[in-house]
Design a protein that fits this description.
Layout: H1 2-16, E1 33-39, E2 49-51, E3 69-70, E4 79-83, E5 94-98, E6 103-107, H2 110-130, E7 135-141
Length: 156
């Protein structure tokens, strides 16, 4: 009887101490810098509140966050985002830090915020498909080249 008890206790302890399953995440295009340091405690369904100190609304393309509500309490928010024109990044760049229970996106400009949110959407899709937590990670991304299209006119 004692052996069965200790065997069950050992098995229970082993499974309770097993690390959380880590997902396989892909971001396209690949960010300039991306370091994963483990799992956050955030699943996609946990993103219920977002916060911006300047009152900036979520930009177009962030429909995946339609269930999340704006809050005036930074500590209540799972997503905190800001635009900082003084950020030491090229135009359209952003920094993302997914911590244990909060995501911080700081962008150089509106385009950078849109790109940061697009990256978050990819991570959330991967996490939901694999039923895993979002990765605890830091991302720094910006375009390597500035693209300017030239119009070409043909004579009529």
């Amino acid at each position: 009887m004692k052996i069965k008890y200790f065997a069950l206790l050992f098995i229970g302890f082993t499974f309770s101490c097993a690390p959380e399953k880590q997902g396989a995440f892909k971001i396209l295009p690949q960010p300039q810098q991306w370091e994963i340091s483990g799992n956050s405690q955030l699943k996609t369904a946990d993103l219920k509140y977002h916060f911006n100190a300047d009152g900036i609304s979520l930009p177009p393309g962030s429909d995946f966050l339609s269930e999340a509500k704006a809050t005036d309490d930074r500590n209540q928010a799972q997503l905190v985002y800001a635009i900082d024109t003084e950020l030491d990044l090229k135009a359209e760049g952003y920094l993302m830090d997914i911590g244990t229970d909060q995501i911080q996106i700081t962008a150089k400009d509106q385009a950078g915020l849109i790109y940061g949110l697009a990256t978050l959407e990819q991570l959330m899709e991967d996490a939901a498909e694999q039923n895993v937590y979002l990765p605890k990670c830091q991302i720094k991304d910006f375009p390597l080249l500035s693209c300017h299209s030239l119009g070409h006119q043909t004579p009529s």
